[in-house]
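Input (RNA polymerase subunit sigma-54):
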Amino acid sequence: MPSPVTAWFERQPASIRASFFALAAAILAACFTLTIRFATAEIHPYQAVFLRFAFGLIMIAPMVMKSGLSSLRTTRLPLFGLRGILSAAEMSLWFMAVLYLPLAEATTLNFTVPLFGTILAALVLRETVRVHRWLAVVVGFVGVGLIIQPGSDAMQPASLLPIAAAMCMACAGMITKQLVSTESTTSLLFYLMIITTPVSLIPALFVWQVPSWTAIGLMAVAALMMNVMQICNVKALQLADYSFFVGFSYLRLPIIAILALILFGEVPDIWIIPGGALIIGAAIYVALRERKLAKS
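Output:
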């Protein structure tokens, strides 16, 4: 029998339930970033990446056991391998960005993933990208320029870390798009963890130090938050159209900015506002345009 709270929630309109899951995903994404900042204050980002994937592998094991080994059959291991390497690289770059940059800046620059995805779709997948999406990409990178201010004394080399992470994420996403047509959800998650765990262990060994129980606990919580966040994203997309969902994903920026101010005293640079507006606006337009073209 469902609990009274569950029964009440199920009676709510789909838009309300979708909003709950989408907002929960945004909050979890922000909390994940903050957790990584606390963890990498003690252990090297490479070691944190390994622990994140190792705990993710442990947490995915029950799903694999429930689905059975037959769900893992695949003929596309090379693509899985490349996706795993890119994902490990992306996570390493992102963890370093979280450590070395103000969190609001790192988060905003990482929103360039859809922009790089558009470029890769045109160059690698030979998709037709029309002028509207190219203009959105240009506008987005103007926003990047406002934030990092290339050529000026204000530019930090570390600002390139979240951009490089976004490039790796876009490449991994392009491969995922090819895999989802033939592979199960269980195999997508399992092969990601089973490949990224040993791959991320290699650089971690060069900087390894015995982590405290606090650091281990933080990374276990971070892995759990990522898993729950993915479930919330799926639930939200099952209840509402992507155009309804996409705006919620960018709510993690103000959440992170507020929490970073409270916890670390980080005051966002004034250029975050116009630059972030251009990047987020361009990313939303690209995402909605791709959704519309996919439907047609």
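DSSP finds 13 helices and no strands in the chain.
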